[in-house]
Each structure stands twice: as structure tokens, then as C-alpha cells.
Amino acid sequence: MKKIIYTLMFFVAPFLGAQEKDNGITLGAYLPEQSEGIPSHAKNMLKNKLGRIITENGISDNVYNSRFIITPNINVLSKNITGTAPAMIVLNLDLTLYIGDGIAGNLFTSQSLSLKGVGTNENKAYMAALKQLKPKNPEIQRFISNGKQKIIDYYNSNCGLMVKKAQNFEAQNNFEDALLTLTSVPEASDCFNTIKSKIRPLYTKTIDRDCKIKLNEASAIWAANQDINAANEAGLLLSSIEPTASCFSQVKALYAKIATRVKDLGDRDWNYALKVLEVEADTIQAARDVGMAYGKNQPESVTYNVRGWY
């Protein structure tokens, strides 16, 4: 009996630089419970294959509770054992990939592929079959392209809801979630033109508050005990503060005091440095980085609804 709702099982795939992302479109890879029937090594290969399909086709592999997912379903069409010595297992698989809104349960697009694998055991036969799953396969590329467009269509159709959601978060002083909501909108969408002017002031509020919190905490640590351990604790906090934050001049002053004290102590194990202001920094990308860093620290668990997809 197939499951209706599955629990998230994310994996971390290789990360590609921002230049290879498709204007902020993100997609999470999700293996449903059915995949537990796949031998473990083959399942790990499938995880990696999905990650490559995402990133090598110009999408950011978002592993932080992504709304939009790519998920597989495998049916064994036949399983035969040859009469050769040694005996070999021959698997014929029907693999279908799906892209959709895993929260609302809306399927966007799907693509079926026939795979055949031969191996001395079932695990090796599965792996031989999955090796045929190529990210640059024209059928997969068309599938991903269709999925991208559906994701863009979602944001264009729900732009007002995204703005309202961000406003509600901001009204609750939850600047990080508001920022994460806005920066999740792909730059390729028409909605981005609506929300981009709201990102900069929200980003400023977020980093200014973060600066004050970390500065106060670092100051308290340093005031309590001015030894190398306190210097390391305070330095770790100060080194993570954005240089465009309003209290950064105070951050530099405290940093200078600590650096002088560490030098007096004769201890050279203090290796912290403040962030440097980048003259050509992209505010949108900086805001997206802050939002993603916040999302990374949230619980990596969400329930997806794939009712009727398989």
C-alpha cells in the first residue's frame, strides 16, 4: 500500500556557486519511504544522482525545508537470474521523477525512464541501472525546464501572499523569516520586481539587530574575563557581524581592545578577523545568504504531501 504523506529525508549534495544557480530557483531532493526497499548503496547513489540532476541543470539544491521538491518512484518491472556462472541478477526498472509543491501537494511535472541493470547481487544490479540516470539526458533537461517554469508560475500567481506573509513576520519583529520569505522569490519571476525594493530595508533591520545582539554578548563575555578563552568567544561573535551594520564602528572598537589585550598576553592563538566591506557587494545576494543561513539553523524536518503523484 502506498503512503500518502511521507516524512522528509533530506540529503546534502555538492554545492555549486551562485553563478550556476537559475536566478534564485531552489529545489529540494526528497526520498520517500518507499525508497527504503532499495539496497542501501543504491539508495545513496540515487540521492547523489538527484542532487546532480538539480545542480547540473542550473537550480540551487535547497536542503532547508524546500517547498518545491524532486522525488523518485521506482517500480521493478522484472527481476531475473541468469543461468551463467556466476549467476547474475538482471533488473528492469521503471523510474519516474516528479517535481511539485510538496507542501500543498500539487504535482507540476513528471518524467518516466526505463533503466536496466545487471550485477552479481541485487545491490549491484540496482547501481548499474541507476548509472544510466544522466543529468544531461535531454528528457531530464526538458523535465527540469518544465519544473522551473511551474515554480516561477507559482511565485507569480502567489506574489501578494508572499508579500503579506513577509509583512506579518516583520510586524512580529521576525525579520529573519520575513527576509527568508522574500529572498525565496526567484529573480526570474515577475514577482521579484514587486518585492525587490522591500529586501534592502529588511536586510538592514536584520543585520542591525544581529549586530547589537552579538556586540552586547561579546562585550559581556570580554568584561567578565579578559583571557584568551574570552577573546576566542568574543572574537567568534564579532567576526560574524556584517560590516554594513549600524553598530559596526563599536564592533571595531571592541575588536581593537581585545586584539591589544591578546598581544599583551603574548598568546598568538587568536586568529579572528572582522568581515571586510565589499565595495561591489550585491545586497540581494547578501540578503539571500543571511536568509539561507537562518534557514539552515531551523529544524530540518517537514511533512510532505505527495498524494496522487504516484
Explain the overall architecture.
- With 310 residues, the chain is α/β, with parallel strands linked by helices.
- The chain folds into 2 domains: 5-157 and 301-305, Double Stranded RNA Binding Domain, CATH 3.30.160; 161-277, no CATH class.
- The protein contains 9 helices and 7 strands.
- A 5-stranded mixed sheet has the order 3-2-4-5-6. A two-stranded antiparallel ribbon has the order 1-7.
- Strand 2 (26-29), helix 1 (40-55) and strand 3 (60-61) form a beta-alpha-beta unit.
- Helix 5 (175-183) crosses helix 9 (283-296).
- The longest helix has 35 residues, at 190-224.
- The relative contact order is 0.14.
- Mean pLDDT is 85; it is low at 1-22.
Strand neighbour order, sheet with most strands: 3-2-4-5-6
- Mean pLDDT comes to 85
Number of structural domains: 2
Structural class label: alpha/beta
What share of the residues lie within helices? 40-55%
Order of helices and strands: EEHEEEEHHHHHHHHE
Strand content: 15-25%
Secondary-structure blueprint:
Layout: E1 5-7, E2 26-29, H1 40-55, E3 60-61, E4 68-81, E5 89-101, E6 106-119, H2 122-130, H3 138-157, H4 159-171, H5 175-183, H6 190-224, H7 228-238, H8 248-265, H9 283-296, E7 303-305
Helix pairs in contact: 1-2, 4-5, 5-6, 5-9, 6-7, 6-8, 6-9, 7-8
